Structure formats: structure tokens, C-alpha cells
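Example for reference:
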Amino acid sequence: MSMINYASREINCKLVYYGPGLGGKTTNLEHVFGKVNPAARGKLISPATETERTLFFDFLPVDLGTVRGFKTRFHLYTVPGQVYYNASRKLILKGVDGVVFVADSQLERMEANIESMQNLYDNMAEYGYDLTKMPFVIQYNKRDLPNAAPVRDLQAGLNPGWEVTELSRQRVAPDPSHAGENLVEQLGTGEWVEHAPYFEAVAVTGDGVFETLRAVSKLVLKSLA
């Protein structure tokens, strides 16, 4: 989790972009890197391979203000998409403060999305992390493609919701980003469920990239406060 450096009065937080191969994780970070003030960012490390553009991770510290007088520094990572790099995926998740799952909206990639989401939950559980109780945002990327699945289908497959057992949280919580939708709601069966915030994106043009980053960053800062 977040590391506090009292000497430099910095809180270092780790964000990990997770998802299937070639879904747009690296593209997200490259766009952020290109738009952030050079004085506020570190070096972008992007090792490339013949099979995928990202083998290990991208590293990008971004200054995002202060929390109780401490400067907050975010470190952004991506994980390799292929299943056979799972050891690297798990290593990168260690100490994570917030997660962005980048889903590929293409219809034929649904199975890969679901497999990667399950892998995320499994790897988090191995560290004792509960993804439903930490900053977690989903991005549906490649919304500009003609074969993009409807958002409702992506939601059903990747973000159906988890049960809310705390009585104090069993109340409707509207989704501020989507009119008429709720982050917490009661099903017809009487069960209360919570959904992760989601955003539509076209990472190659930057659409939705900063909205996604801003949302997960705010959740991390809220958890720190």
C-alpha cells in the first residue's frame, strides 16, 4: 500500500492498469505522459517485445497535490496482458493502492476480458487484497470501433456488481458520471449490490483517459484521507 516518506514529506501511491493484451493499457499511460507537465513527471519506461508492446511495466510518477501537508506522488504501472506472464502481473500488483481495468470493447475480445478480470481477482486475493473494498475503476476502451460491444453487455460480463452487506451502505448511490445509473442499488431480489465506476474511452485519441485516471486518483486520495 502507500508509502510515506517523512523526510521528503511525500506519500507514494501505486496505480496499476490491468487487462487483456493489446487492450490499451500502455496507450493510456503514453497519453498521460505526453500531456502531463514534464516538471511533474518522471521517466516513462516502456520495454517492448515482439509479442506485445509491454513486457513488464510502464513507470510514471505524477504529482497530484497534497494530503495533510504531504505531497502525493502517483506511480502508474501496466501489467503484461498475456496469461503466461502471470508471475510478472502478480509482482506488479504487490503494494497496489488503486486498480484500473482496461477492457477491450471488441465483441471477439469478451472472453479475454473475462479471463483477465478473473485473473485480477485471483491475484489480488493471493495478496489478501479485496478488490471490492479498494479504489477500482473500469475503462471500456476502443469505443470507436464498429465491432464494439454495447456497454450494457460489457457491464453484465465484467461489472455485474458485488454484494453490499454493511447496512449503513445499503442505500442508492447514483453514478455521477452516468445519469440514471447507480453505483449502489437494490436488485429485484432484494439484494444490494455495488458496481465499480466505469468510463468509455478511445485511448489512441485520449478520450476518457484522464477521466479514468482522475476517478481512480480521487478514490485513492479519499482512502488516504
